[in-house]
Design goal:
309 residues; seven-stranded mixed β-sheet; 2 domains; single chain; elongated; alpha+beta; Rossmann fold
């Protein structure tokens, strides 16, 4: 009888020990933007500094310009946008300078070299430990929750075209029975996972907002020798691509909010890419032939380049 009881006890101990394992649970939205076979010219996106608006990790020697949590969020967003294949990312750390350039209007687009500026902030962050103690077993959980806000600025107008906040959570669990099982220590990766879960809920909207508006480029120079537009190979511009030259519409002031509104422009010419040049995304250019129409070469700021429909 004693042997049977001992055998039964050992059998129960085996199964409870086998089930006492540590596991990681990450709550995040895996929805991604649908993949399209149609080729699209990559938008240039400058990612500004992510700020940490929480009190977490802000000790006596805290340096807001080198905040580790803000850098975590920036790196995560950069990776997710790059994975979409729709953007040429231009990281920018001097947000104050960018804001000043945006305030200048159309000139800012030439100085920043981007179509959109993304600004982010971590608005909430919390870490907690919870547990349950039973007669024969106990469990402990380590939970991190984070909230992230993202804003998209159209560099050509300085207007915020998208702003939203999302929350994410990451959790580790450990369970033990009869004092045997996984022991849970401090898990530093939970911060990344919680922030990533929050950003992942916003990525699809960010991609859609940045690609809804037609792609634009600008005339850099035009004379008897050559006509050159901004943008090149890294944006997936190719030789023989045909673009429209659009004369900017009239700007009028909205009396309700005081903002300037640009009316729809008019196509005045078409150009064809004959050569690509430049060493970096910021210095790339395309040499084009004028197929039809004309424009005033002395007033290049009055025109922009866009895709033909």
């Amino acid at each position: 009888m004693k042997k049977k009881l001992i055998s039964l006890f050992l059998l129960c101990l085996f199964f409870t020990t086998a089930s006492a394992q540590k596991k990681v649970v990450v709550v995040e939205n895996e929805s991604q933007a649908p993949i399209s076979d149609q080729r699209t010219i990559k938008r240039k996106v400058a990612i500004g500094r992510f700020s940490n608006e929480t009190k977490y990790a802000k000790g006596l020697f805290y340096d807001k310009d080198n905040d580790p949590m803000g850098k975590q969020a920036l790196d995560i967003l950069s990776a997710k946008l790059a994975a979409s294949g729709k953007f040429l990312l231009l990281e920018r750390s001097d947000l104050d300078k960018l804001s000043q350039e945006i305030a200048k209007g159309d000139v800012a687009n030439q100085q920043i070299g981007a179509d959109y500026l993304i600004i982010g902030s971590i608005t909430q962050y919390g870490r907690k430990n919870v547990g349950n103690q039973g007669v024969f077993s106990s469990s402990k959980s380590q939970i991190v929750e984070a909230a992230v806000t993202i804003r998209i600025v159209d560099v050509s107008t300085g207007l915020i075209i998208y702003s939203d906040e999302a929350k994410g959570m990451a959790e580790t669990k450990s369970k033990s029975s009869f004092g045997i099982g996984g022991k849970q220590g401090y898990d530093a990766t939970l911060s990344d996972k919680a922030i990533s879960a929050a950003i992942n809920k916003l990525v699809e909207n960010v991609i859609n907002k940045c690609t809804d508006k037609p792609w634009r480029s600008y005339l850099l120079s035009s004379d008897a020798d050559a006509t050159i537009i901004s943008g090149g190979a890294s944006q997936d511009i190719r030789v023989d691509d045909v673009f429209a030259v659009v004369k900017k519409g009239k700007k009028i002031k909205n009396p309700q909010n005081g903002l300037m509104i640009e009316l729809p422009g008019k196509i005045v010419a078409h150009v064809k890419v004959i050569m690509l040049g430049g060493d970096t995304p910021e210095t790339e250019y395309s040499l084009v032939d004028i197929l039809d129409g004309s424009f005033d070469a002395s007033q290049l700021n009055n025109y922009y380049i866009t895709e033909t429909k």
